[in-house]
Design brief:
Elements (H helix, E strand, L loop, with lengths): L6 E6 L3 H10 L5 E6 L2 H10 L4 E5 L7 H14 L11 E5 L4 H9 L4 E4 L4 H13 L1 H5 L3 E6 L3 H11 L4 E6 L2 H11 L3 E4 L8 H11 L5 E5 L3 H8 L4 E6 L4 H14 L8
Parallel strand pairs: 1-2, 1-3, 3-4, 4-5, 6-7, 6-8, 8-9, 9-10
Helix pairs in contact: 2-3, 8-9
């Protein structure tokens, strides 16, 4: 296999034992492994080399893995007006798992999140899927950001919407949703109006001020006449009053995304 046919994997982790684990697990002529121990070195390498996958520890000597990830997403976003950079898939690993870190990593779009010690078989399978398999095709799917403060509603959205054509990421409030918008650039937003910290109306107002043209479906317990009066100038394409029919939600998503050039007939 020529060097041009290889996939370049950058591993940012200062633990020698984990570096050895990666070398043994991904020992293949298909992979070109590069190891760094600091976040700055990871960012420098990404700027200089055509990296296909980043394996990133949550804790590095000079910065956190989340800081590295934010810097990467910002770099890609800032360069959009100059050159279309390919998406860099990221797998995060940690010996000290915390739910809030996992959640933010998911908002920032990681392809996988592993707790150390890492399951060798699952790790190897995900790496191969990202570099050669279905993951590469799945990036063509449209991304839906669902904003609701109730965990059960977030799980509902992930359960019934994520599938062949749509990916789903969730946020609990307007502030968290704005971060997801900045780093994930969703194709559609579904939001409740009654949110903590920053309510739905404030979220949509701030979103409009950013200049991002992202269509919005509002799902709220407020009546349509009452709710639409609050958000009619804020990019809302559809308004669904709770309780709503699941099929009604799916049809609304299909309609909005098809107008934007997305994929319809999800189910």
């Amino acid at each position: 296999m020529s060097r041009e046919d290889k996939r370049t994997i950058l591993v940012a982790d200062d633990v020698k034992l984990f570096q050895l684990f990666v070398k043994q697990t991904l020992n293949s002529p298909e992979y070109d492994l590069i190891f760094v121990e600091k976040g700055k070195d990871a960012l420098d390498t990404i700027m200089k080399k055509d990296v296909d996958l980043l394996i990133l520890d949550v804790e590095l000597p000079d910065m956190t893995g989340l800081e590295v990830l934010r810097n990467i997403r910002k770099l890609i976003q800032d360069m959009q007006s100059v050159v279309q950079l390919k998406e860099l898939p990221v797998i995060m690993v940690t010996a000290y798992p915390k739910e809030e870190i996992r959640r933010e990593a998911e908002i920032l779009g990681v392809a996988g999140f592993f707790e150390k010690p890492v399951n060798r078989k699952e790790f190897r399978r995900l790496v191969r899927d990202i570099l050669f398999g279905d993951y590469r095709v799945s990036r063509k799917r449209k991304l839906i950001l669902c904003v609701d403060s109730e965990p059960r509603v977030q799980k509902f959205y992930q359960g019934v919407l994520a599938g062949k054509y749509w990916d789903v990421v969730t946020s609990s409030d307007g502030i968290e949703a704005l971060e997801a918008v900045e780093f994930k650039n969703p194709d559609l937003i579904i939001t409740e109006l009654n949110l903590p910290q920053m309510d739905g109306v404030e979220f949509l107002q701030t979103l409009k001020e950013t200049g991002k043209d992202i269509p919005v479906i509002v799902v709220s317990s407020l009546s349509e006449s009452e709710g639409m009066e609050k958000v009619k100038e804020l990019g809302v394409k559809k308004y669904l009053t709770k309780p709503f029919q699941l099929e009604e939600l799916r049809k609304s998503i299909e309609e909005v995304l098809s107008k934007k050039g997305g994929v319809s007939n999800e189910q």
